[in-house]
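SEVERITY: medium
COMPONENT: batch folding queue
REPORTER: lab tech (J.R.)

DESCRIPTION
The queue accepted two submissions in a row. Attaching both inputs and their returned structure tokens so the on-call engineer can compare them side by side.

ATTACHMENT 1
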Amino acid sequence: MPSLPWHAIDTVLLDMDGTLLDLHYDNHFWMEHLPQRYAELHGVSRAMAEMELQPLFERNAGQLQWYCLDFWSAELKIPVRELKQETAHLIALRADADTFLAAIRQAGKRVILITNAHRDSLSLKMERIELAPYFERMISSHDYGFAKENPQFWDALQADIDFDPARSLFIDDTLPILRSARDFGVGHLLAVKEPDSKKGPKDTGEFAAVEDYRDLIVGL
């Protein structure tokens, strides 16, 4: 991974799930825990639950409702917020993410969290991992009504925080989101090599990727 031109970066925009936090919690919840509890609560087999859930997941992926706990609670007729509490012990910080956050704050950069997570998910995670003090703002895409994949999210973010995209660094583990940021003009983009600690490295396409947060603060 090339060293970052920190002299050309004023604002650091950071995703949460898979970027600062291990994506294992979310993957386990949506792929394992939710189907199991859906089956139990609706009195169907696990296989039937997965058959019913899969098309719904595919239809809504990448849209704001995909990330909305209210939407899924209504759609699936189950208490998704409460179910997320049942696996909250799996919420974990990625290695040295806090070291990175402390270093960029100390260096005087603007540090802003931008997440597609619903506000209830954000609150649950901040109860477990205290990251709020590192950030000037913690923004959920639900605040704007557009997921980060949508160009309108970036227009809303610009209007809200008044940042210079060309002098900004954005780190995210989702390629369509990084491409949306690139189209908006964000000058410095990094993917995440291993967002889920249990799944191994992933292909990050055309983007350089974070493997070790300590490497990013060289030259800061």
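ATTACHMENT 2
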Amino acid sequence: MAKIAASTATDATPSARTGARPQKKRKKSQIPYAAIALVMIVIAGILFARKSDNLSISWIFGIAFGFVLQKTRFCFTASLRDPVLTGSTSISKAVIIAFAIATAGFAAIQYSASLADPANIPGNVHPAGIHIMIGATLFGIGMVIAGGCASGTLMRMGEGFTMQWITIIGFVAGSVWGIRDYTFWDSNFFQKSPTIWLPDYLGWGGAVFLQLLVLGLLYWAADSFSKRKLGS
């Protein structure tokens, strides 16, 4: 018995004798695929530039925006889903910061435009009513089931997620159906709802301050929630 045990110990692999884990299989290099994709992006940009400068600029910004989305995992769905599922609010706070930056930027653009021509201020001001609540609820349910909002869906399509390719079909179908029924919603909801533009009521300074204050309170609430849930 002693000889058998000694033979078994001798025949065992080094990893088994030392208790070390077997080495993981090396992942295939993605560099060739990245190089091919880069060449295709450049060629497409050149072709777009021959037709229109705006097309090429939009192409460059679209590629850059997609790259940032993929690396940061920035997603509006995750900003609302993660606090409930994991307690993390890192993406939630990122979205709030993005809103704050957009608020300052759009306010500056609109204020400058109002000085030149108050009747033609860029940006859309839509009626606020129960239709916003209905649309937000339906969209919120849909994006949680689908696992992504519009930006997250497009980003994950590029990563090869089959579910997101199915989701984009739903996006298109829903948009077409919405256009089909737009007259109904417009006559029964849009036209009967009040249009509220804060600068009309609070002035430019008051409107910007109020919006940034609300965003600041939301950021504080998100940060406090995360610390309480995760204990950090």
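NOTES FROM REPORTER
The chain has eleven helices and no strands.
No errors were logged for either attachment.
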